[in-house]
Sequence to fold (213 residues):
Amino acid sequence: MVVEVLVKAAYGAPDSLGDCPFCQRVLMTLEEKKVPYELKLVDLTNKPDWFLKINPDGKVPVYKDGDEKWVPDSDIISQILEEKYPQPSLLVPPEYSAVGSKIFPCFIKFLKSKDSDDGTKQSLLAELRSFDDHLKEHGPFVNGENISAIDMSIAPKLYHMEVALGHFKAWKVPESLTYVHAYMKLIFNRESFIKTKAAEEHMIASWASKLNS
Fold:
């Protein structure tokens, strides 16, 4: 049986891997669990009919294992992968399931903000400080010494934050957040992350299209 995953193609480069953090989450999970898979790129700016027949909502990622039905939504896919391929375990304790969950929406608000006094930067900093405090007490990963499903969710979003805010706002994570910096260095250099990340230029092009629309 072959695992198939439909993911976003790069904006303006449909033959290259795109910058969807939810797609990368699923791909990282497959890589960490050493599950062979077949990748199919979908141009979301010109969605093909075959893709819309599979998922009429037109969203990625979408996953299928062998003859089973196609399944959308990275939350559901990650849960299926954990049940079907339990080793290595990427289970997250319930008390850690929401750690870092507000960073991505705060990042997007700050990125789109045109008012330096609207509090969006401060909100992002507050979430990053909270994340730093958690890592200080429980790190180096969210759940301690071993990587888990929550890291697969957070890491791609931090990559978006680093690249997009660095490019469009010349902003970086403050050096004082030493545990966040150590976490990003640790996970960004992990093989599963490197193999599944989009090129920075594709990410910038994608965000530019959203910011200019």
Remarks:
- The first strand starts at residue 3 and ends at 10.
- The radius of gyration is 17 Å.
